[in-house]
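Hi L.,

As promised, Prominin-like protein:
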Amino acid sequence: MASKSNALDTNVKDLRRIGGNLKTLANDTLDKAQKAENYLHTESSKNINKIVEDYTTRVLGWGFQFTDHILDILNNQLAKCRPVTNIYDATVVVLCNQALYPFNGFWLSIGWCLFFFIPAIIFCVKLAKHYRRMNYESDFDQGMDAEMYEMGQHDAPPHYSQSQEKKQWANPKNSVYPQAPPGRC
């Protein structure tokens, strides 16, 4: 039993040594976790933005490096032969300057026409009521009612002519398209 007591005493001493150290380790771990959480809340967005910026610069740099390499090959290795350079320059001028620019100008002009034409249509429709012909009733002030004349109940007045009849029915009741009076067509 003495040996078991000594073994138990040794285990208790070992546990005290580990347990005292365990408490400080746990406190240190909690402090580090708190610092990491604070860092994530305050500094992580800045670091993520910097990492994304660096990555995009790196990826775009590959494209720029490739175009620089191609232009260097065209200018220094391929351009040593003057006829090939002339062919390349003529192709660029024909495709870009003489074909693509006028095509882009055509579509640009169509776009500007649509941009201004649609509001102009709306504006014209809104103003159309102001430009319609109005009824001329000054000839009928001599005691003859226009509706009775149009219905054929009275003979035409002596001062009445065909052009005045056209003025009369040019826009009855503010309609869009003129219509002939009933019984006159």
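Helices lie at 2-42, 44-78, 82-127, 146-150, 162-168.

Thanks again for sending the construct details.

K.
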